[in-house]
Amino acid sequence: MKPLGQLIVICGSMFAGKSEELIRLVRRAMYARKKIQVFKHALDDRFHHSAVATHNGVQIDAVPVRNTQEILNLLEPDTEVVAIEEAQFFDEKLVRLCVELADAGKTVIAAGLDQDFRRQPFGIMPQLMAVADEVVKLRAICVVCGRPASHTQRLVDGRPAAWDEPTILVGAEDHYEARCRNCHQVRRVPAHLRRRLWRPQKRAKTPPQSAKLGEKSA
Ligand SMILES: [Zn+2]
Q1: pLDDT tops 60 at residue 49
Q2: pLDDT for the residue 60
Q3: Residues with CB under 5 A from ligand 1 (ion)
Q4: How far apart are CA 106 and CA 128, in angstroms?
Q5: Is the whole model's pTM more than 0.70, yes or no?
Q6: Does 211 fall in a domain?
Q7: Which residues contact 160 (CB under 8 A, 6 or more apart)?
Q8: pLDDT at position 43
């Protein structure tokens, strides 16, 4: 019988542990003696050029690629597990490729940022999450208040980044933090997005006299 493939998408903000989770799943496949290929988008050249590095220093070997076609060129026919890091940077063809590989009986593990620094869905991640068999959405801890964080805060020269700055700044002097929705900040949000659809109702200061508990109306 043909092996049943699957697509697992690991997502969340920066510092949520996406790379650790990807490494954990790849290690399990290694113990099971599966043939594995790990790719990562070449845009991310932090720390090591041919490894998936986590912020705590753990790493596995990965092949840097610039697009989906390069993965296709490098894929070996007997590979059983394909892992992809920084999936948010890839082109739309990656979504089709992941589905085709899973349909062919392979396990595909794709990890990426689900939101950009504006809290908007990042690149192809919504599509990947929709067609996945399993979505592992991880949360970080807010560096400001210590509560669970789902967002990535970009700081440029110590100030929150502005909405109209480019999503991907390679080699820029910027800095990222995990923040919760209460502590996350973006400057120069467009007016149509600042306008709220919904506002909390203001409570009446004192309840009307007749509404007091235990009081009967005459
Ligand atoms: Zn917070």
Answers
A1: no
A2: 76
A3: 142, 144-145, 180, 183
A4: 16
A5: yes
A6: no
A7: 153, 154, 185, 186, 187
A8: 77
Q: Does a structural domain hold residue 152? A: no
Report how far ligand 1's centroid is from the alpha carbon of 33 (Å): 42
Number of domains in the chain: 1
Q: What pLDDT is attached to residue 203?
A: 76
What's the gap in Å between 81 CA and the centre of ligand 1? 37
Show Cβ contacts of residue 174 under 8 Å, excluding neighbours closer than 6 positions. Answer: 154, 155, 156, 161
Other Cβ atoms closer than 10 A to 132: 22
β-pairing, 59-61 with 51-53?
antiparallel
Known catalytic membership, residue 165: no
The structure tokens listed for 119 are 């809290």
On average, the pLDDT of the chain sits at 89
Q: Decide if 123 is inside a domain.
A: yes
Ligand 1 centroid–CA 140 distance in Å is: 11
- Whichever domain contains 83, its CATH number is 3.40.50.300
**Ligand 1 mean position to 143 CA, how many Å?**
7
Residue 110 within a domain? yes
CA of residue 147 to ligand 1 center, whole Å: 6
The Å distance, Cα 88 to ligand 1 centre, comes to 24
Q: Is the pLDDT of residue 53 over 90?
A: no
Q: What is the pLDDT of residue 35?
A: 95
* Residue 150 pLDDT class (50, 70, 90 cuts): very high
Q: Which domain holds residue 58?
A: 6-138
Q: Which of these is catalytic: 85, 86, 100, 165?
A: 86
